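Suppose a colleague, Dr. K., hands you the sequence of a protein chain of 127 amino acids and asks what its three-dimensional shape might be. Before reaching for any lab equipment, you can write down a predicted structure in token form. Begin with the sequence itself:
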Amino acid sequence: MAARATEPGPLLDDSLMASIDDPAPGARVRGAVLVRGWCQEWGGKPVDPVDFRLDGISIPDLEVRRLPRPDVRGVFPKMGDTSRAGYEASLPAGTVSAGRHSLTVVFEEPQGKRRRVYPAREFVVLP
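The predicted structure, expressed as tokens, is then:
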């Protein structure tokens, strides 16, 4: 059997700094699900959250707000300007069914390097 040609995917790079802060691991959420964290390259270069996946399914058209994260610079002084290192997005109440869920976020820097935050963030939506 001949091997099938596949297109190369994006370069995954674990050196990109990123975190999911909320929902917390094992959180029990009622209403809207707030997704917050930070992502940044060393020296202040931008990294954007480009793909939010709930239970492996991409969430399209999610509005992401960028926020300052001086706490990140306090922990990582060589991080540089963290005035846009934070991110926040909300999954409106009623759009996520009750039960256990798994959230992953993929981040991308301008040259196309990507990073997925592992392990996936597990949380529960209450009825």
